From TrEMBL, chain A:
<dbReference type="Pfam" id="PF16327">
    <property type="entry name" value="CcmF_C"/>
</dbReference>
<dbReference type="GO" id="GO:0017004">
    <property type="term" value="P:cytochrome complex assembly"/>
</dbReference>
<feature type="domain" description="Cytochrome c assembly protein">
    <location>
        <begin position="89"/>
        <end position="295"/>
    </location>
</feature>
<feature type="transmembrane region" description="Helical">
    <location>
        <begin position="249"/>
        <end position="265"/>
    </location>
</feature>
<feature type="transmembrane region" description="Helical">
    <location>
        <begin position="393"/>
        <end position="413"/>
    </location>
</feature>
<keyword id="KW-1133">Transmembrane helix</keyword>
<dbReference type="GO" id="GO:0015232">
    <property type="term" value="F:heme transmembrane transporter activity"/>
</dbReference>
<dbReference type="InterPro" id="IPR003568">
    <property type="entry name" value="Cyt_c_biogenesis_CcmF"/>
</dbReference>
<dbReference type="InterPro" id="IPR003567">
    <property type="entry name" value="Cyt_c_biogenesis"/>
</dbReference>
From TrEMBL, chain B:
<dbReference type="GO" id="GO:0030288">
    <property type="term" value="C:outer membrane-bounded periplasmic space"/>
</dbReference>
<dbReference type="InterPro" id="IPR036249">
    <property type="entry name" value="Thioredoxin-like_sf"/>
</dbReference>
<protein>
    <submittedName>
        <fullName>Cytochrome c biogenesis protein CcmG, thiol:disulfide interchange protein DsbE</fullName>
    </submittedName>
</protein>
<dbReference type="GO" id="GO:0005886">
    <property type="term" value="C:plasma membrane"/>
</dbReference>
<feature type="domain" description="Thioredoxin">
    <location>
        <begin position="33"/>
        <end position="169"/>
    </location>
</feature>
<dbReference type="InterPro" id="IPR013740">
    <property type="entry name" value="Redoxin"/>
</dbReference>
<dbReference type="InterPro" id="IPR050553">
    <property type="entry name" value="Thioredoxin_ResA/DsbE_sf"/>
</dbReference>
<comment type="similarity">
    <text>Belongs to the thioredoxin family. DsbE subfamily.</text>
</comment>
<keyword id="KW-0201">Cytochrome c-type biogenesis</keyword>
Length: 655, 173
């Protein structure tokens, strides 16, 4: 009964979404304020209905209702409650439901927090979001209904994919989807701007916090995904250039470009059509990511079930949505041609340059991801593009990007001259060069040119990120620091995050040591300066798996550093084997042990890795997200609301 | 309207055409670099025994080498068809991939055994050398022990009729 209720709620949500996607447009066309206002209530009603559907599916999982096919396929009677709740998004149907729930959530948020927008803009934005929801709801109802029943009812479920039974993966998809779907808001704003022909500083100011929020969720989602792969896949890798990873990385790159381009559009009124294009592209790449993952066009380690009918649906949807968006762009964007002049040596010039690098990087990732498909299409055979391509293309593209990030903060808007800029960057340049040469030597007694280059870029970014707060401190002391707006702090923290990330990336890539060893109890292996001794391997049953747990004692100069307990789990329902790596970490190094396979004679195969500065890679991602949060919560966006629509203050409507 | 504003739309059209093509092709038909090469060497033991089994014993007649496991759902899907092939007299050598002997034997006892011989690849070493992505995967070997075809995923009547049977007929003749 409850699953039918959920199904019905989804159908009702579709009806509401159709209203949300049409009435406000008609209202704008006829200048009818009441029709325009329908968008707000429809968005909120739609969110409530989808929430009900979502709750129904969760209920079916919690109650172990095996008569629901999706539940039977993705849960098991012994599966712990936390994973039964997260199993809702453990496979295709449920993740699409989560996707529309988040879309409806963003749409409801826009309806609540954008009351100060001009009524026609708000109506158009909500209508675009409603139209998108229609597409996704149809997709779920027609091709991937999670409420389908199965008969005869199985005795027990087939269990959740063991890969997904990890706390990290419980929150990874929701974060990623918050990011993906969040770009739909920027997209809706872009479409509204194209239709209404209105694209000014106020438009950029409305769009900025939404874009930054979506971007920070995507940043967190990607960071968490990388952290999860590192701990759970047992290979010590943290980024695989897998098609599914690329699918989340491309919108991130374009979203980063969009955030910076919006800044230029707001401050200087330049790059308008470029900003609109980026807003469309960021969401286009999110849709493309969904298509790539869900259609099975590309093979990936992410084992989601695939179905060609779904692929055809998403492809059609993608073609219609983006076809309309790009046609509108081709028709209306020429009128946004800027009047101002753009100097290369100015902040906006450097931001545009960074934009170009980011977009080319995203294009390079896209080409690498689609290349196998293209080769296949022209009948040239089947190939796969691996990390060598991506590393070869990506590093030369990002190195100058990082250089410009530091430079841009020393250069003012409009026009700058070298004689002014040089004194600001001189000191940072020398410090970064000096420390960049010393750091590899100090830490690893071995200098590689690539390590010096990476360390230099990282330090340069770190020092230059603090340029603006430092300048304000010198000018006005403590008061200067207190007056720094959150947006500037956000930029500072995010750029520090970038520096930390580059530092971690450089050292972990160049100085890691990996060894596959065979050890019996009591035997030990040396990796770098560390000695790893396998003391014992003991069985340890879990709730729905049986594990072998090893005890590995790590010593350095006869001093015990860590006692690591890696596990090898065999999940009972599907018999799948998973490794749980054990890691001892400090900011400067990770010691990583994974228990691979039992060998004859009581010996075990172990994978032992020494990974310098691994933590910094994720710390960088987290700092970027914190920077995003600071920037999105800037006072200016809240004030702007009052200023844009003074009537709101009189009505007492909370903004 | 200036042409550069139309560029994104044109790129989209190209991509959509590409994907429409991609949807009609099975991404699982990944080429194996091993096709046309001799079967990679391995030293395994027979399932449930200690008798060694090597790639040498695959020579002399065309046959199928099927990587499977008791924990694999796809293997159960193709199982009835393998039984049918065995009845038709096709020799299938099973390689039990990353599995335990007890569970594999229990699985065979419950569902039936389509294999003439089964080697146990408990650690997945042979699977690694053979480039196995996941189970089930089926290799077609000719009488000289050369790999002539690789099928990824559950084997079915269609794949057998269109791809494998002609190869075996040619190899045998």
């Amino acid at each position: 009964m409850i699953p039918e209720l959920g199904h019905f709620a989804l159908l009702a949500a579709l009806a509401v979404a159709i209203i949300q996607g049409t009435f406000p447009f008609v209202g704008v066309w006829r200048r009818d304020a009441r029709l325009m206002a329908v968008g707000v209530s429809a968005a909120q009603a739609q969110f409530v209905l989808i929430l009900i559907a979502y709750a129904c599916l969760t209920w079916a999982f919690v109650e172990r209702d095996w008569s629901v096919a999706y539940v039977a396929a993705n849960a098991h009677s012994q599966l712990p409650l936390m994973y039964r709740i997260s199993a809702v998004w453990g496979a295709h149907e449920g993740s699409m439901l989560l996707w529309v729930l988040i879309l409806a959530g963003w749409s409801a948020a826009v309806s609540l927090f954008s009351r100060s927008l001009p009524a026609d803009v708000q109506a158009q934005v909500l209508a675009v979001l409603g139209a998108l929801a229609v597409g996704f709801l149809l997709f779920i109802l027609l091709t991937s209904n999670p409420f389908d029943r199965i008969f005869p009812v199985p005795e027990d479920g087939r269990d959740l994919n063991p890969l997904l039974q990890d706390p990290g993966l419980v929150i990874h998809p929701p974060l990623l989807y918050m990011g993906y779907v969040g770009f739909s808001v920027a997209f809706a704003f872009a479409i509204a701007a194209l239709i209404g022909g209105r694209l000014d500083a106020a438009w950029a100011r409305w769009t900025r916090p939404w874009t930054t929020l979506a971007w920070l969720f995507l940043t967190l989602g990607i960071t968490l995904g990388s952290w999860w792969a590192y701990h759970e896949l047992g290979w010590g890798g943290w980024w695989f250039w897998d098609p599914v990873e690329n699918a989340s990385f491309m919108p991130w790159l374009v979203g980063t470009a969009l955030i910076h381009s919006l800044a230029v559009t707001e401050k200087r009124g330049l790059l308008k059509s470029w900003t609109v294009l980026l807003a469309i592209l960021a969401f286009a790449l999110s849709l493309l990511g969904t298509f790539l993952v869900r259609s099975g066009v590309l093979v990936s380690v992410h084992a989601f079930a695939t179905d060609p009918a779904r692929g055809v649906f998403i492809l059609t949807f993608l073609a219609v949505v983006l076809g309309i968006a790009f046609a509108l762009y081709a028709w209306r964007a020429p009128r946004f041609a800027a009047d101002g002049e753009l100097q290369w040596l100015s902040r906006e010039g450097l931001l545009l340059l960074n934009n170009v690098f980011l977009v080319i990087a995203a294009a390079a990732v896209l080409i690498g991801t689609l290349y196998p498909l293209v080769i296949d299409a022209f009948g040239l055979g089947k190939i796969s593009v691996g990390p060598p391509y991506f590393n070869a293309v990506f590093i030369p593209l990002t190195a100058p990007l990082v250089l410009f990030v530091g430079l841009a903060s020393a250069v003012g808007w409009k026009r700058a001259r070298w004689p002014e800029v040089w004194p600001r960057i001189r000191l940072a340049l020398f410090i970064a060069l000096g420390v960049g040469v010393c750091l590899p030597w100090l830490l690893h007694r071995h200098i590689q040119p690539a390590a010096v280059a990476g360390a230099f870029l990282a330090l340069w970014t770190l020092i230059m990120a603090c340029e603006e707060p430092w300048r304000r401190w010198r000018a006005r002391g403590r008061r200067g620091i207190a007056q720094i707006p959150r947006a500037v702090w956000g930029m500072t923290v995010a750029h520090i995050g970038l520096g930390v990330w580059v530092l971690g990336l450089t050292f972990v890539t160049l100085y890691h040591i990996e060894r596959d060893v065979r050890l019996g109890p009591g035997q030990s292996a040396e990796v770098g300066a560390y000695r790893f001794e396998l003391q014992s391997v003991t069985p340890r049953p879990g709730p729905n798996y049986d594990a072998d747990q090893a005890l590995v004692v790590v010593t350095r100069d006869a001093e015990v550093i860590a006692r690591l307990k890696p596990e090898r789990r065999r999940y009972r329902a599907q018999g799948t084997v998973m490794t749980e790596a054990a890691v001892d970490h400090t900011p400067l190094r990770d010691l990583y042990v994974a228990l691979a396979e039992p060998l004859e004679g009581g010996d075990w195969a172990l994978r032992i890795y020494f990974k310098p500065m691994m933590r910094l890679v994720w710390l960088g991602g987290v700092l970027m997200a914190i920077g995003g949060l600071l920037a999105a919560s800037d006072r200016r966006y809240r004030l702007a609301r009052w200023a844009a629509h003074p009537a709101a203050r009189i009505d007492g409507v909370p903004a | 309207m200036r042409i550069r504003y139309l560029l994104p739309a044109l790129v989209l059209v190209g991509l959509v055409l590409l994907f429409a093509f991609g949807l009609q092709h099975d991404p699982r038909q990944i080429p194996s670099p091993l096709i046309g090469k001799p079967a990679p060497a391995f030293t395994l033991r027979l399932l449930g025994e200690q008798t060694p089994y090597t790639q040498e014993q695959l020579r002399g007649r065309p046959l199928l080498v099927n990587f499977w496991a008791s924990w694999c759902a796809g293997c159960l899907v193709e199982h009835p068809f393998l039984m049918e092939l065995a009845r038709r007299g096709v020799e299938i050598v099973g390689i039990d991939y990353k599995d335990t002997d007890t569970e594999a034997l229990r699985w065979l006892a419950r569902h039936g055994n389509p294999y003439r011989t089964i080697a146990a690849d408990t650690e997945g070493r042979a699977g690694l050398d053979w480039g196995v992505y996941g189970v089930p995967e089926t290799f077609v070997l000719d009488a000289q022990g050369i790999i002539v075809y690789k099928h990824i995923g559950p084997l079915d009547e269609e794949a057998w009729r269109t791809k494998i049977a002609p190869l075996l007929a040619g190899g045998a003749g």
